[in-house]
Specification:
Elements lengths: L13 E5 L4 H12 L3 E6 L4 H8 L4 E6 L8 H12 L4 E4 L14 H29 L3 E6 L12 H21 L4 E8 L8 H5 L1 H10 L12 H8 L10 E4 L7
Parallel strand pairs: 1-2, 1-4, 2-3, 4-5, 5-6, 6-7
Helix pairs in contact: 1-8, 4-5
């Protein structure tokens, strides 16, 4: 049987991506627009660079400026998204922060700031869109962004590791509850990528060499490397994929 490549198209769909102004979020926005989706980018700061990249090939993009550290902004995000393009079909919970500090020195404030964005917001934003999808009985796609530290402990990032470990569990739990409503909940675990979060690691020559030495692909990943996985999980091609976390890591976890 000849495969139907149209199943990977996002034509006519609307995707909302958090943390859309730089890095992986920007890469996912560009990929979705290229695949035919209307894209809404949510970030604390302007997404003008993302908008310019999408406008260059005639894609459709709208930004929503919101501070994702506080779940009180969720109704505003939902309302602005619906005003921009109507129904949202795909939610990508990409926004995240990392605070590097020895575990014995982590403050309550730093711990809470990481958990609020990386875990609390992910759940309650997913809940907000799932309620609408269950009500209209048309389903939807949720893609959470996990991490290599969803599997490993790491060092000097206890709150980040806790939050990203939680993402895999949350992805499974929500899939268990919402699959029957035609809602696919999955995750992507990026490897070591060239993003803002890894800038300090890449500047540390010794740590960078140690990391590269363990990546079978022999290089840091890029936002473009995440595009295929993000499109697949958002498309009809993944309609029977539920509760799975796909590693895009250059082979890191295979070592």
């Amino acid at each position: 049987m000849t495969p139907n490549l149209n199943m990977f198209s996002l034509e006519g769909k609307t995707a909302l991506v958090t943390g859309a102004n730089t890095g992986l979020g920007q890469g996912i926005c560009v990929a979705y627009a290229n695949a035919g989706a209307n894209v809404i980018g949510v970030a604390r700061r302007s997404c003008e660079d993302t908008a310019a990249k999408i406008a260059a090939f005639g894609g459709s993009f709208q930004e929503v400026i919101a501070d994702l550290s506080d779940i009180a902004v969720i109704p505003q995000i939902v309302a602005q998204a619906q005003k921009a393009f109507g129904r949202v079909d795909i939610l990508v919970n990409n926004a995240g922060i990392i605070k590097r500090c020895d575990a014995v020195d982590v403050s309550v404030e730093d711990w809470d700031s990481v958990i609020n964005i990386n875990e609390r917001m992910v759940f309650f934003l997913s809940q907000a869109f799932a309620k609408g999808w269950i009500e209209d009985n048309k389903g939807g796609k949720i893609i959470n962004i996990a991490s290599m530290l969803s599997y490993q402990g790491g060092i000097r990032v206890p709150a980040y590791t806790a939050s990203k470990s939680a993402i895999i569990g949350l992805t499974r739990e929500l899939a268990n509850e919402w699959s029957k409503h035609q809602i696919n909940v999955n995750a992507i675990a990026p490897g070591y990528m060239e993003t803002n979060n890894t800038e300090n690691l890449r500047k540390d020559e010794q740590r960078s060499e140690e990391i590269l030495g363990r990546i079978p692909a022999g290089r840091w990943g890029t936002p473009e490397d995440i595009a295929g996985a993000a499109i697949f999980l958002a498309s009809e091609a993944a309609s029977y994929v539920h509760g799975f976390t796909l590693a895009v890591d250059g082979g890191w976890l295979a070592r």
